[in-house]
């Protein structure tokens, strides 16, 4: 069980660290990509700052055993939002298709991005389940 948790945590930690740092190191390109999305300019501006910070905070939560459950939960929530948005783009729900905006993920089409996100959601759920199983009975997380 410990090996599975280590692999899940490592993969999610890598994804959120990579995407968060990539958006910060290439901030102007990332900000421009957010402004090219299908939502209002004001929201794009807020998200250009909030998304990389959130991704790095999730990575930080995943780093420590005591906060890992919250990292898995945050990962699940953020990935669900991303996947819903990507799915809507993939099925043509918006009048135009925006560009992709996350480093190596730029090379993925929307369908591949959707399925990758679904896989990461599955890892987050599995992480939550294994973390909950690892907690002793009567722990603070069960209260």
From TrEMBL:
Which part of the chain is the Methylamine utilisation protein MauE domain? 1-128
This protein's UniProt keywords: Membrane, Transmembrane, Transmembrane helix
Q: How does it sit in the membrane?
A: Multi-pass membrane protein
Where mainly located? membrane
Query: Subcellular localization, per the record?
Result: Membrane
- Return any one Pfam family short name: MauE
Residue ranges spanning the membrane: these are 43-64, 71-92, 112-128
Residue ranges the record marks as coiled coil: none
Under which name does UniProt file this protein? DoxX family membrane protein
